[in-house]
Amino acid sequence: MNLKRIYPEHTSRQVQFISEDYRHWNKTFRTMLNLKPSEIHYSQNCISRLFRGSGKPIGETLDELYTGKITVDHIPPITVTYDMFHENCYSLDNRRLWVFHYLQGAGKCSTIPVYIDSSISIEDSPKFTTKNGGVSVSVNGDPGGVFWKSITPATPTI
Questions:
Q1: Residues 6+ apart with CB under 8 A from 20
Q2: Which residues contact 37 (CB under 8 A, 6 or more apart)?
Q3: Domain tally for the chain?
């Protein structure tokens, strides 16, 4: 993916925030824009079947989005980082990305809001465990829900 292509002026805005770097507090900037889920790679090899905090199965969230009970706006934007060497965006929120890959595969979602955070180096992260370039991810256990069983998820290309 060419990063210049995903930074059109009319779709992004700068958002200043404070993030904790493990060694010190650091002021950084994130850019919010819309990407196709299939333009985003997983950073992990496997993910939990449950969302942290709510304990809700990821497949149930997919079902709610698929049926229209909730919308993409109900899901917090995912954060991605851009790997210039491989020219890929990698997600830091892999469970939400799993849901969006299936939703795009079902034709129910074309783009999602994402933050691109350039202050994060994915290769240095303990979360970067993908063994296949982030094309797919394994779910630890049954993700719940029913629609994921009959949908072919959208997948990024390497």
A1: 26
A2: 97, 100, 101, 103, 104, 109, 111, 112, 154
A3: 1
Q: 77: closest CA among 117, 44, 46?
A: 117
Residue 158, in any domain of the structure: no
pTM for this entry: 0.81
Residue with tokens 């469970």: 95
Q: Is residue 113 part of a domain?
A: yes
- What confidence tens digit (pLDDT) does each residue in 108-128 have? 999 999 998 877 777 777 878
68: domain CATH number?
3.90.1530.10
Taking phi over 0 as left and psi of -120 to 50 as alpha, with beta for the rest, 93 belongs to beta
Domain that holds residue 98: 3-150
